[in-house]
Design brief:
The chain is an alpha/beta fold. It contains 16 helices and 23 strands.
Length: 497
C-alpha cells in the first residue's frame, strides 16, 4: 500500500504523527493508498523551513524568480499526462477534465512570469519642495494555501505561483482525498530551480490547518472549500492578525431569457451542470427559464441530453463525467435528490440508481434533472456539488435577477440572451461576483481576478490577476528629500576600473 507523506525542504518526508487518511480510487471504490496527517509539530517544522528559505528568496531579483516560473511551466507541460492520471485516479474526473484542471492552473503560472512588471511600485517626483514619493511592493514572508479536492492542480497553482513569484515562501495543505498531484507539483518546482523550502506540502486535517492559522510566522492564508470552513478560517485568521482570503460554496444560476438561442443554451448547460460530475464551485446547478414557454422548451430539449450523458471510468477519454470523489459524497448527493423530491420538485431524470457495469463498487451517480425548485427549498438553498440540475422557473426578468441576487451564495451567474440591453442591465443589477453573458462558467482569465460575493467569499481581495499580487505583497511608501548642500560630498562617475 502506497503511503504519501509530505514535501518539506526540497524532499519527500515520511509522516510521523501515526495518523493516516485513506485515498480511494473513485472508479473502483478501492482504497489505493494512505496519506499521513501532519501533527502540529510537523506543521511547525515546515514553517521553520519556509521561514529560513524566505530570508534568501525574498532578495532574489524578480527576473530570476520569473525564470523559475518559466521553467516550472515547461516542466508541468512535459508532465501533463502523468499529472492528469494522478488526478483522475484519486479524484474521479475524466482525463480531459484533469488536463483542463492543470491547464487553468498553468495560465496563472504564465501570468506570474510577468512578476518583474506586476510587482513594480509607483513614483511621484516633486510631491513637495525637493520631495519625491515612491512605493514598494514587498513580499510578506511565509504564506500558506489550504486547497480543495476538486481542483488538486489548478487551485494550488492559483495560489503558490503568484505568492512565490512575489518573493514569499509557501506551504500548501492540500485535500487529503487526492494528495499525489500537489506533491508532484512541489517536486517540479524544485526541478525548476526554486531553492529548498520555497514550496512545501503538508498533508493533514484540521490539526494542521489550525497550526498554520495560529503560527505568527504565517503571514497570509488562502483557502478554497466549503463556506462554513471558509468563515471559520477567516474569523480565526483575524484573531491572529493573519491576512486571509477564503472562498466558499456556490449555487450558480444560468438565466435563459425567451429570446435566447435555446439549442446553444441547452448544450452549454449540459457541460456546465454535469461536467466534472458537478464537483466545481463554478458549475451551474440551477437553470432559470423566464416564462412558462421557455421552461417547457428547455425541459423538452434537456431531458434526452441528460438521459444520454456518457458516464464512465475516470481514465476514459470520451466520457462526459466520471464518478464523484467518495462514497460519502455520493450518498450525500442522493440524500439531496430525495430532499428535493420531498420538497415538491419534479424528477424529470433521476440518476440515483445508476451503476456502471464492471465498476459496481465505484462512486457513480447518474445525471439528475429536477423541476420546480423554489427559494424556500433547502435543496435549492444549499450547495449539492454533484451532477444535479434544478430548474427554478421565473415569471419575468425581475424575478430572474432576484433569484441569484437574494441567494446566500454569490459566486457566479450567467444570462443567455440575444438582447444586448437586457444583458447589460442584468450584469449591472445582479448581486453576484462573476457574471457570464452567453458564457455558462464565467471564470475570468488569469490576468483578471476570481472571487465571489456573500457566503462565496470572505475577505476583500480576490485570487489571481493584479488582485493576487496585492494579496501576496505589502506596500511600503517612502517619502524622501535630500539636502541641497552637503559639506564634503562629491558626485563621482563610476568607472570600470
Amino acid at each position: 500500500m502506497t503511503e504519501h507523506g509530505h514535501f518539506i525542504n526540497g524532499k519527500a518526508v515520511t509522516g510521523v504523527s501515526g495518523r493516516f487518511g485513506d485515498v480511494f480510487n473513485p472508479t473502483t471504490g478501492e482504497r489505493q493508498s494512505v496519506v499521513a496527517l501532519a501533527s502540529t509539530a510537523e506543521t511547525q517544522a515546515a514553517v521553520d523551513v519556509a521561514e529560513r528559505a524566505f530570508s534568501e528568496w525574498a532578495h532574489v531579483n524578480p527576473q530570476r524568480r520569473a525564470r523559475v516560473m518559466f521553467k516550472f511551466k515547461e516542466l508541468v507541460e512535459k508532465d501533463m499526462e502523468n499529472l492528469a492520471r494522478m488526478i483522475s485516479s484519486e479524484h474521479g474526473k475524466t482525463l480531459p477534465d484533469a488536463r483542463g484542471d492543470i491547464q487553468r492552473g498553468l495560465e496563472v503560472v504564465e501570468f506570474a512570469c510577468g512578476i518583474p512588471h506586476l510587482q513594480k511600485g509607483e513614483y511621484t517626483e516633486a510631491a513637495g519642495p525637493g520631495i519625491d514619493v515612491y512605493s514598494l511592493r514587498q513580499p510578506l514572508g511565509v504564506c500558506a494555501g489550504i486547497t480543495p479536492f476538486n481542483f488538486p492542480a489548478m487551485i494550488p497553482m492559483w495560489m503558490f505561483a503568484i505568492s512565490i513569484a512575489c518573493g514569499n515562501t509557501f506551504i500548501n495543505k492540500p485535500s487529503e482525498k487526492d494528495p499525489s498531484c500537489p506533491l508532484r507539483l512541489a517536486e517540479l518546482m524544485m526541478e525548476a530551480g526554486a531553492p529548498e523550502g520555497v514550496l512545501n506540502v503538508v498533508n493533514g486535517d484540521k490539526e494542521s490547518v489550525d497550526a498554520l492559522i495560529q503560527d505568527p510566522r504565517v503571514k497570509a492564508i488562502s483557502f478554497v472549500g466549503s463556506s462554513d470552513i471558509a468563515q471559520y478560517i477567516y474569523a480565526e485568521g483575524a484573531k491572529y492578525n493573519t491576512r486571509v482570503q477564503a472562498f466558499g460554496g456556490a449555487k450558480n444560476h444560468l438565466i435563459i431569457l425567451p429570446d435566447a438561442d435555446m439549442d446553444n443554451a441547452v448544450n452549454q448547460l449540459i457541460g456546465s451542470a454535469y461536467g466534472s460530475a458537478g464537483e466545481r464551485c463554478m458549475a451551474t446547478p440551477v437553470a432559470v427559464p423566464v416564462g412558462e414557454g421557455t421552461a417547457e422548451t428547455l425541459i423538452e430539449l434537456l431531458r434526452p441530453k441528460v438521459e444520454g450523458l456518457r458516464i464512465g471510468p475516470s481514465n476514459s477519454e470520451d466520457s462526459d463525467l466520471g464518478p464523484v470523489v467518495s462514497a460519502a459524497h455520493r450518498d450525500r448527493i442522493k440524500s439531496y435528490i430525495q430532499m428535493a423530491i420531498d420538497e415538491g420538485q419534479t424528477p424529470i431524470v433521476d440518476g440515483r440508481d445508476f451503476t456502471l457495469q464492471g465498476y459496481e463498487n465505484g462512486f457513480f451517480i447518474g445525471g439528475t434533472l429536477l423541476d420546480h425548485a423554489s427559494p424556500e427549498h433547502k435543496s435549492y438553498q444549499d450547495e449539492i456539488f454533484g451532477p444535479v440540475l434544478q430548474i427554478a422557473r421565473a415569471r419575468d426578468f425581475e424575478e430572474a435577477v432576484a433569484l441569484p441576487s437574494k441567494h446566500q451564495y454569490g459566486n457566479g451567474v450567467a444570462v443567455f440572451t440575444r438582447n444586448g440591453a437586457a444583458a447589460r442591465e442584468f450584469a449591472q443589477k445582479v448581486n453576484v461576483g462573476m457574471v457570464g453573458v452567453n458564457v455558462p462558467i464565467p471564470v475570468p482569465v488569469a490576468y483578471h481576478t476570481f472571487g465571489g460575493w456573500k457566503r462565496s467569499g470572505f475577505g476583500d481581495v480576490n485570487q489571481h490577476g493584479t488582485e493576487g499580487v496585492r494579496f501576496w505583497t505589502k506596500i511600503k511608501t517612502v517619502t524622501q528629500r535630500w539636502p541641497e548642500d552637503v559639506q564634503g560630498s562629491e558626485f563621482v562617475i563610476p568607472t570600470m576600473g
